[in-house]
Amino acid sequence: MLGALLGQALDRRLQLHNWAQVRERLGGRPALRNDELLFVLLGRLAKSDGRVVDGHIQQARLEMRSLDMSEAAQRRAIAAFNRGKSGNDRLRGYLRRLSTQPHAAEGVLRACWRMVWADGRASAAERELILLWGKWLGWTTQQVQALAADYEPNKRPLTSSAAYQEALRLLGVSATSEPSQIKRAYRRLLSRHHPDKIAGSGASQLQVREATEKTRELHSAYALIRERRDFR
């Protein structure tokens, strides 16, 4: 009874929703806002292999743009991303609470897979994290892994000239384009066809599926060009 009353008081006065948040507040770390949780997760993923690369940073920026964040919200997202890299947050309570919002939970998992494939590969550490977070969100291993297929670059042989030319065509660049030009083209197209952005504009399910397929093609094309041209 006392615990329940204390919990209600904490919720009213401090806007804390679980004991993990209480521990963080008492320990001097502010509890995560809903709009910060995603970027803490993305930061944790980006750092899981020990080094954050340019692809991770650019993917985080794409997520911000797709969510049409204000400048203040972007600053919070950047701080949350950096906070996630430290790996100090206990995320189970936050994700358990998010599990009551199926659409939001799926959006988080999809964003996580996009971050994983931002550098063209998915490490064992990254996969383990997403599967664990999916479990806390109430998803089965099979359901979480099924989402990965929407973002995993196709395995095309690097020796295939036709595949390389098709990748260049998809990004609207040439074999002599500078890496910086290729990166800009990739980011611009990815932002334009981002499934979450399309869904948020009131598009039909068919249009969202088409955007998802286009995004997968762009990921695959960029990964192929980057491997062939040997840049990150």
Automatic annotation (TrEMBL):
Keyword entries, A-Z: Chaperone
Residue ranges that the Swiss-Prot or TrEMBL entry lists as coiled coil: none
SUPFAM superfamilies named among the record's database cross-references: Chaperone J-domain (SSF46565)
Residues in J domain copies: 166-232
Family annotation (PROSITE patterns): DNAJ_2
Matching CDD domains: DnaJ, terB_like_DjlA
Keyword Chaperone attached: yes
Entry annotated with the keyword Chaperone: yes
Pfam family, one: DnaJ
InterPro entries: DjlA_N, DnaJ_domain, J_dom_sf, TerB-like
Name of the molecule in the record: Molecular chaperone DnaJ
